[in-house]
Design brief:
Chain A has 13 helices and 14 strands. By secondary structure, chain A is α/β, with parallel strands linked by helices.
Chain lengths: ~325, ~325
DNA sequence: TAAAAGTACGAAAACGATTAAGTAAATGAT
DNA sequence: ATCATTTACTTAATCGTTTTCGTACTTTTA
């Protein structure tokens, strides 16, 4: 491989001059700079990242923590899109992305040890059990961090606007004439709390009378559980006219139960999902859902992280909230 | 950060001794080795990867090329699962994975330049336009490579068993009594060729009489196109009793058209998908499809690549074919 | 008992870049 | 004309490892 030394020899200058010329130092004349650049290009020079890193402690590599208990993170379209957004933004800013793990060969190590070992310039945390002690340790390790869909008290975070998401859905459903609205929400997490809080606020503001049986809990993507919840709702003496699900997946589970009872959607009961995955669109009927702007979330996470890496701030904590938009399908009946 | 030098100082030995002790060299006594190891652990020593790489040219980092024109690779569940498989296998063998790109900051560079710059020990190519000249250049660059679902003439490849996949589906459908079987296949690629060839072989062996109108072409995941194809098939004077689609996504598109004509599935017409994505299972009716063992494909790709990295072979070309299995849903009618 | 072989460690040179500090020549100020 | 500044380079140290080649000491062999 061709190194600065080779270029220096060819150009009859010192390696220092080559390095400076290539890195835009001001104490190199335009003439030699151009000469060196031309020679470097001609020789197909590429800097040896390991050497650069060793000297500067910069890797231009950002780690991304993307694991959950079920290891389904990557296969979840929402997170896949976030990842895609991170990837393209980071790459356009000159960084590459590497997955973080907590085992290296046979041995278990901590996430933060891994990051230290690989010398990531920064880390994005998404789709992980945020209360895992290892994650907490990583967050406190001092490395620049951006979290997605979770707020720690000393990191930058990029959040989907869950408050507005639920509000928009509620207002849409309300505008369609629905008053008896059930909400099957996800398990406890920052995201869920925001959504549930927003739901209750809407209930209050819209002066709805929602009986406690209308509120149920169901793990995200757990279609089996969604099925059970839906059955319970349908069996109520006073069933809802519309059900909000934690996500599109569970909504489909619910729809299947409803259909199996020979009820029609949206004629007999309305259904609303969340996420806006592609399947929601081609489902029959298309599901009305809240499409999160996951690509933008990924992009913002990457750009804020890189900004933090390149010029560290005194004030660290910031929260970027990304709005989604209601995707109107045909699963909500207009009662007017 | 604690370095070998620090350990050496604490242990009153030379850095050479520390390095050797930690790397299992035989010319270190058990006694000092244990002493050094204990001290290293106590001090929280982690090797500086940049320095290791600079000296040994090994990064324990494998690059993965995972792009396609539409940038939808990651959001495709099949590829997401492959990636998941690669990730866990690689990590368990002590490697981490990084995405390959062809732009670094503002500048465009080639894939192989990127790999050289980052010094990946090896590369896995999946979900990419395999005839892209840049990809060809990468394949010929000399770096250890494993390709997924595509065969080059000098790389190891991991393929889904498309021949057996189509055969299994055809035999299943045949066993259910179908004789008029239409096949909407994907666009030209190694994968498609294998499937189409297998289809025709089955037609011959099962002595089916398939009119040319039954064979159509549709880009993978292109539901709009699948819709059109399905309409044409339904409009035939002699329509098929069963339609094979390129993938589950297009199958769902087809199903929607069929349903919109007030035909029932599987009573009036049968439908078969491919891939076995999770939507296929929760769809109503569940779609009979071929579930590719994508996790295993990813794992094999990673382990063969690492084997190739760690002990280069003289004979390079190898092809590993991974079988899938028919996932029986309720979209194929039993005609008996 | 002297030579050979084996054992356990150390000195020092790499790997390929960056960068502080130094220097010589050219230019500017007084 | 003298000193100060600026310009355009070079020298050399350094980052944290690995690894070759010594070396000193101990043990075995003949």
């Amino acid at each position: 491989m061709v190194s600065v030394k080779d270029i220096a020899a060819q150009c009859k200058v010192s390696v220092a001059t080559v390095s400076k010329a290539l890195n835009g130092y001001s104490d190199i004349s335009e003439e030699t700079r151009n000469m060196i650049k031309a020679k470097a290009a001609e020789m197909g020079y590429l800097p040896n990242m390991a050497a650069v890193t060793l000297k500067t402690s910069r890797t231009y590599n950002i780690g991304i923590l993307f694991e959950d208990a079920s290891n389904s993170g990557l296969t979840h379209e929402y997170f896949a899109r976030v990842l895609q957004g991170i990837k393209s933004q980071a790459e356009s800013m000159g960084y590459c992305i590497t997955f973080i793990t907590n085992r290296i060969g046979g041995k278990k190590i901590t996430y933060s040890e891994y990051c230290r070992n690989r010398q990531f310039d920064g880390v994005i945390i998404a789709c992980v059990e945020f209360n895992d002690p290892q994650v907490v340790e990583l967050v406190n390790s001092g490395i620049p961090i951006v979290t997605i869909d979770h707020v720690f008290n000393n990191t930058i975070s990029v959040m989907s606007d869950n408050v507005k998401g639920i509000r928009d859905l509620m207002e849409h459903v309300y505008a369609m004439g629905h008053r008896k609205i059930a909400y099957i929400h996800g398990y406890d997490s920052s995201v869920t709390r925001d959504r549930v809080t927003s739901f209750y606020r809407c209930v209050e503001r819209l002066e709805l009378d929602i009986p406690p049986e209308y509120i149920m809990e169901c793990k995200y993507r757990d279609t089996a559980r969604a099925t059970k919840c839906t059955k319970k709702l349908l069996d109520l003496k006073n069933p809802p006219t519309c059900i909000l699900y934690p996500d599109d997946f569970t909504a489909i589970g619910g729809i299947n139960v409803i259909k199996s009872r020979n009820l029609k959607i949206p004629e007999d009961i309305s259904v609303v999902g969340y996420d806006g995955i592609s399947y929601a669109l081609i489902h029959e009927p298309p599901i009305t859902t809240l499409q999160q702007d996951s690509d933008r979330m990924g992009r913002e996470a990457a750009s804020h992280l890189i900004e933090l890496i390149e010029r560290p701030k005194t004030t660290l904590k910031e929260k970027y909230v990304i709005e989604g938009s209601v995707l109107i399908g045909n699963s909500v009946k207009n009662l007017h």
